[in-house]
Amino acid sequence: MQKTDWQNVSRLGTKNCGSHKNQYSVFKQRTEILAFTCLHWFSQLYQSREDVSLNNTEGIINDKKFAVLGVGNRSGAVMFWKVMVPVKVDKAIVQLGGILNTGQSWPSSLSWKETNLNQGLLAVGSTDGLIKIFSLKLLPSISGIAEYVLWGDKDDMQVLYLDWLHSWQTCDDLHYLVACKGSSVIVFSVVAKNDILTQKPSYKIIQGIHKMPITGLACTQNGTIHTCSLDGSVQTTSVDSAITSAVSCAVKKGFTCSGIGVSANGVFIALFLSPSNHTQQYLESHQIHIRFVNIVWGSNSVERLLNSNEVQLDRKWDVCKAIQHNMYYSKKLPEPLQLVSTGAMEGSSFAVLAIMQYALTVMRVISQQQEDDLAGNQVQQLKWAAQLEWIRDYIYKRLVSATLNSWLEGRKAGTVSPLDSVPALIMCDWLVTKGIDSAVTDMVTQGYEACNDIEGLKKVLSHTVKSQENGKESSSGLLLQTGKATENQSVIFQSNAKAVKSQVSDKDQTLAGVTDESFTLLTREQCPLCQTAIAVESLEYGICLSGHRWPRCCVSFVICAELTLRRCQDCNRCVSTPSPGSSPWLRSLLKMTKCPFCLGFFH
């Protein structure tokens, strides 16, 4: 072969080799971009300002709320994905919201904290040990404002976990970031105003709380830090103190602890147990076990929980369970709940009322199971039944008043339709049957006038005249908006009021309003089966003249006749499904995700 031929072959091989190298470089670059190293959901929902169109589907989405998913990639970037809610499994709508170049090696942990409207701080930890925080603006597009280095030492100790928390003893500008590296916990103090750091961040290292590497971190908003290690040891410490305490929980033999979770109010801890490498060799299927541990046990612990200023009563599931467990063993209501009087409960939040209702319901079940002192038990049962009826009516009155007020405002704004007069009249009728006072008389009158309902106006006038003749009003002051009911629950639970009235004969004085027997029940709906009238006797159900029973929507209070209704997972109340012709006002009501009566989730 001639020399020129060798040169051509060599040149061709070099060219092909270079082409393969370029292809491999592109492949590696794409792999680093696509391969994720950590995930983090932002804790808030955001309102989009853009219309998202769907190809060959339902057109433009009316509800443009979205959640944000942060994804750390091997390239060192963090990608932000907008996920439209509610999420549909078969048609999830996802958009790329932005990319943040962190300038770090592989991000290993992320944590977001919202500090202002649509703005906040994103903490990023990497495998080489660096910890940075980025000030981000989410709308109209995700963009960075500033970057700060909290831990600049590349000690090659991977940042295992990051979590923001807030201490109730400090001002709003002071934030705490908890980081886990190895078997140590680092607590950073960050002072930021308008997402700009005003002081140099400080930190303290808590060492020696675990013998093995930390495998889980969970923080509560009262400043408590829960950590677990590979061997299953669980430690709790406070952001304001270096004192740690161990939680007693044994790990199943042959399993290692790979994560920890904590309920909203720190009542329960969940440990995620996975089989060790040695155990996996002898198992056909590798099952993950979850162990729940109750760390609020005993009467003293429950009383401290109820008297705490830091309890999130709107996330009351764990509080209710703690009360239930305590009552099943002590056979009595916790002391703070025994001191709550009817007068002290007026004006309290829905969560406090829901907890009282739950506790009294459980206590009635426990009392029915006891066979001793049957006569005294019956008297106590009647007392609790009177309290439950008062609480139920009081909650409904506040819900109906708030919803009727929103209907009147929607009528002024033009967001209601003529069909919405049915739920408005049902709410007005029910308020009149329960006895209206001066706080809602004007609102009920406006509702009847807006619907041109002469019979309703006559009943309001008759009730007003009768109340003036009797020289008294109903004792229940209704709040027109539920947002005003955010009083400090500790003041309610720690009330020095005496125990509720023990005489059953006081029931009529305890109830917020006594049903007006002279009020003739009006009919606003017809039975979908037999077309007979349905009177407004209850807000929980409606019964026609033929005896057909229909559940009522706990939001609009009309009967639920469709098959696609949703139900509350706790109290089983239903909510209707909006139809294509529903008004904007009704759609906004029916899109609720939580039951307004007990704060449980709809499903």
TrEMBL record:
Domain Transcription factor IIIC 90kDa subunit N-terminal: from-to ranges: 17-240
Record InterPro entries: GTF3C4, TFIIIC_delta_N, TFIIIC_Znf, WD40/YVTN_repeat-like_dom_sf, WD40_repeat_dom_sf
UniProt GO molecular function: histone acetyltransferase activity
One annotated GO biological process: transcription initiation at RNA polymerase III promoter
Gene3D superfamilies to which the protein is assigned, alphabetical: YVTN repeat-like/Quinoprotein amine dehydrogenase (2.130.10.10)
GO cellular component terms attached to this protein's record: transcription factor TFIIIC complex
Domain spans labelled Transcription factor IIIC putative zinc-finger: 523-598
Name this polypeptide is given: Transcription factor IIIC 90kDa subunit N-terminal domain-containing protein
Native organism: Pocillopora meandrina
